[in-house]
Amino acid sequence: MGLQPLKCRSLVGRVQAQHAGSRQPLRVAAEISYIMVKPDGVQRGLVGEIIGRLERKGFTLRGLKLFRPSRQLAEEHYKDLSSKPFFKDLVEYIISGPVVAMVWEGNGVVKSARKLIGATNPLEAEPGTIRGDFAVQTGRNVVHGSDSPENGEREAALWFGSEDAIVDWTPALAPWLRE
């Protein structure tokens, strides 16, 4: 059973909302990001806190699932790190327990979410970021976030597998968050 590609590009730029009292649709050029609460974040009960921070920022949750990833999935996700000495330990860690896989959408969601998440090394992460507030060491840094819009789409496709797993909806607050 191979991994099936997801065509997430159909979500990008499709967000529409109505201005209050206007008949003109509001088009928003949005992007998606894959964000994962890693096993340590799930075990420590940080899922709600992480989701809350992203929601309060104004991003739209498009996909969410709790599951224990396979070795194949973890290795494919981190394939760009396969030559690193920590690759095997990273894969073992990611498959060691449940993760919460999410797809978020919004203007600049990748860059903004990475600021909310904080530096990979928690000792360098600013207070107020997820890692700055909760992570203990690099190998247990609570959360993953896509590092580019292209990787956001690739990772969403990898972890969600079909476009049916991504929900296309317009939040009622959209006109209050975007021009």
TrEMBL record:
Residues 30-167 form the Nucleoside diphosphate kinase-like domain. It comes from the Eukaryota. CDD domains: NDPk_I. It comes from [Myrmecia] bisecta. It catalyses: a ribonucleoside 5'-diphosphate + ATP = a ribonucleoside 5'-triphosphate + ADP; a 2'-deoxyribonucleoside 5'-diphosphate + ATP = a 2'-deoxyribonucleoside 5'-triphosphate + ADP. Its cofactor is Mg(2+). InterPro entries: NDK-like_dom (IPR034907), NDK-like_dom_sf (IPR036850), Nucleoside_diP_kinase (IPR001564), Nucleoside_diP_kinase_AS (IPR023005). Coiled coil: none annotated. Keywords: ATP-binding, Kinase, Nucleotide-binding, Transferase. ATP binds at K38, F86, R114, T120, R131, N141. Belongs to the NDK family. Its EC number is 2.7.4.6. GO terms for biological process: CTP biosynthetic process; GTP biosynthetic process; UTP biosynthetic process. One of its GO terms (molecular function) is ATP binding. Pfam families: NDK. Gene3D superfamilies: Nucleoside diphosphate kinase-like domain (3.30.70.141). This is Nucleoside diphosphate kinase. The active site is at H144.
